[in-house]
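FAQ: What does the model actually see?

It sees only this:
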Amino acid sequence: MKKKLLLALSVFGMAMIPLHSADAILLKANDNEFANVGLKLAIWAQNNGKVTTNDQTSTNFSVENARLYFSGQINPIVQFGANLDFADNTALTPDGSARAHGGMPSTLIKDAFINFKFMPQAQLMAGLFLDPWSRVALGDLYSFIVPLENYNPGITEINVDGGNLLQANSAVNSNYIKYPNGVYEFKPFINPLVPFTLGSDVGNSYRDAGIALWGDIGKDAMIKYYLMAGNGRYDYEAGKNGNSNLKYGFRIEFTPTMLGYKGTPGYVDEDTFLGKQNTLTFAFAYQQQKIDCSPLNDNPAPGGCGSVSGAPSSTTAKAYTFDVLWEQKFGDFVPNFQAAWLDQKDLGYATAGSSVAQPEAQGYYLQTQLLYDRYVGIGKPALVLRYENDENKNYYSNPTNTGFVTAKVSMTDIFFNYYIDGENANISLGAQIVNPNGALKAATANTVNGSTNQLKNFTDWTLALRTVF
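And it is asked to produce this:
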């Protein structure tokens, strides 16, 4: 029988598909076979501070994200989804006059997966998808209450802008490494929020290609679990691993539904429910991947063993995280609180003089939002505060290469959110204050002809507009 195609606008609940959905276009063949299609946009205007002492402030406009998404099913068991992020073709090179914003420099398939929903308690997903490690990695890009959160711009600006502005034609100190283009830049700061993913190599840091068994158990998703095997960081990046080893990991979430709280039944975790449900969720996750060192690899960048004299031929990188989310409605006010601790250790090998050690990246963040759940004008206002502190140990040597230093970066976000239509249309205005510590500044400083340039504290102001259709 010839299938009838119905094109309609519909509000469609996609809890079983790990993609956010608003008033999307529904392509329907019958009740069991359909596809949901929509468009998401994030438009930014920023005033960016000086990342280094030889930088200058700049004002930039960017299409931070333009995403066409698909989700649907062939039948009640076989489901699918994909996110396509399009380039804005205005990626700026950090040259001291403009900031390299996080907009897409090239069109990229962010997600592409097939999900087999045998039952809510047992689902199997294969493809390219969000790594089920931390709450940030699992979060929906358009649900973050701090619009910057998914991009980690503070650390990215230090690595990209700082690395470019402090580059040299020869090694400044042992923290500078030679890149394929022949220039030397300081080793990038290791972000503990980024899991062991292939995405870190292709501008898609929270995704990995692999297979995941996941589901929720009990009323209102009391327990949600993930078991995953994927390419990982050290299997994928050429030259960083002598052998091919997969990444393995798990995550488990617990919500005390007996106290009246509700969990999140879908694959993706939400940053906020905007007062639609009370939530209290605790989670723990772990992942690991073996690194087999190649004797031909002398690149000491994150993820490589390097030709380190006295280092074993292999190690196993490990990552742990614990996080909590609480949101509850009290009359017209909805407080939201989140916290997380993250630790990544045994990340290859590094040297400082005659010392050989395994790098470790640790971090934590505290985040809160207070939403006034009544319309003031055309939207509902909210105030957001977020503090994050990350550190790298056994990774950067001191300028004289006689020992390791503990490099730290702290980031404080203060934002005002205005929800016109919840997550489907909102405006955010705020500042991110980024403070690299003195040890990181000294370890990455570049002195040429008696003039020293280095990283500095800086503040970025952001106006973010987001829509989801």
